[in-house]
Amino acid sequence: MTRRTVMHYADLGLLTPDQVTASGRALYGPYALRLLRDVMDLRALGVPLDEARDMVTLRRATHTLDGTYRRDWTRDDIPLGDERLRAVHARLRLLQDAYARQAEGLARFDRWLTKRFTGGDLPALDIGEGGEEEAAESGAPESAEKQG
């Protein structure tokens, strides 16, 4: 991510600095960086900037500045109209459906590879954070060649 992109996102209202120095330098804290990561992920998924901005706006309205969920938020706290909220909801549903289809395809491929290269005795991988490390710690072979 370039400085220019961060500045552009700030100009569009996607990011707000936690602090601005006397010289005008914007300083972003952990929550702003989390929102930036969310925007980057959304953009990588093909979500247009205006819809990404709506998603950031929704998150800001329902979370505190440190990123914790606000249980006391009301509909009045959300500056998006019902039409924009329906568009955000439709986009999220499309993304979830696409992920579900991809997850099914990846699971089938994983089962096939497991059967093909290990005879079916390879433990399932946890693809969450650190999935590679978990596979190595579980004693899973690094490649089919080492299986023999």
From TrEMBL:
Record keyword Transferase present: no
Gene Ontology molecular-function annotations: DNA binding; DNA-binding transcription factor activity
Keywords from the named record: DNA-binding
Source taxon at top rank: Bacteria
4Fe-4S is among the record's keywords: no
Location of the HTH merR-type domain: 1-58
Disordered, as annotated region: 123-148
InterPro entries: DNA-bd_dom_put_sf, MerR-type_HTH_dom, MerR_fam
Name of the molecule in the record: DNA-binding transcriptional MerR regulator
Source species of the chain: Deinococcus budaensis
